[in-house]
Amino acid sequence: MPEFDDDRLERTVEITARAVRLEGTLGVPATARGVVLFAHGSGSSRFSPRNRYVARVLRDAGLGTLLLDLLSPGEEEVDEVTREHRFDIAMLADRLVAAVDWLATEPEASRLGIGLFGASTGGGAALVAASERPSRVRAVVSRGGRPDLAGDALATVRCPTLLVVGGEDDVVLELNEAARARMRATVRLVTVPGATHLFEEPGALEAVAALARDWFLEHLGSASGRVAGA
Which residue in 29, 31, 63, 104 has the fewest CB atoms around it within 10 Å? Predict the structure, then answer.
């Protein structure tokens, strides 16, 4: 995985969701063509090297990024033992919606269309959030995600959705195929040959980042990437 050392665009932010304070890292280029909110997966955080690599690729392409910890430190400690919070899709989606609404109040991002990048269980939460904020969320990318966990919200998602799954991740691939069949929006399912669930194989994460970059640029990178009347 390539290394980057320029974090000058980034700053730490705090977002309140139902009295819970969540920390995030926001980076918005001066001429951003959209902003992508990351929904981290099971046991992950905004400091995950995989998430940060994808975020840097997106920023290099002229997209803003918000990497957000969806659990508080106390909740993280509990989840490490019980794993209960990472599968609470309703709670995670609610916090993503709070972050989407928060971005609408930030001068540097308020006029930008939003994309959601979900990984693992974050993929399901991202789709629920997209269904609840159809006028703000313009595109979703799921990396090795669990879109099936979005349940009935799948049928109400309106934005173009890209599902990326490792070619060797058989169970998750089946779940993604089933979820795609329930969706009415434009959906594309792409497998990365030879990749397993975490895309740790050489070149696998780079392929994911390139697919996500191109998808978000297509759907956020034009005039449609800005919110009318915002």
Answer: 31
Query: CA angle 69-73-77, nearest 5°?
Result: 115
Burial of 47 (0-12, 13-18, 19+ CB in 10 A): exposed
List the structure tokens of 18.
């139902």
Strand-strand pairing, 10-17 and 137-143:
unpaired
* Beta pairing, strands 114-119 & 20-27: unpaired
Residue labelled with tokens 């969320």:
137
Find residue 118's DSSP bridge partners: 39, 142
pLDDT digits (tens, 9 = 90+) for 128-178: 999 999 999 999 999 999 999 999 999 999 999 999 999 999 999 999 999
Yes or no: say if 51 and 116 are a contact pair by the CB < 8 Å rule.
no
Structure-derived torsion over alpha carbons of residues 28, 198, 196, 36, reported in degrees to the nearest 10: -20
pLDDT tens for 91-134 read 999 999 999 999 999 999 999 999 999 999 999 999 999 999 99
Q: Is the pTM of this model over 0.85?
A: yes
Residue spans per domain, the chain: 13-221
Q: If 0-12 CB within 10 Å is exposed, 13-18 middle and 19+ buried, where does residue 176 land?
A: buried
Cα maximum dimension of the chain: 46
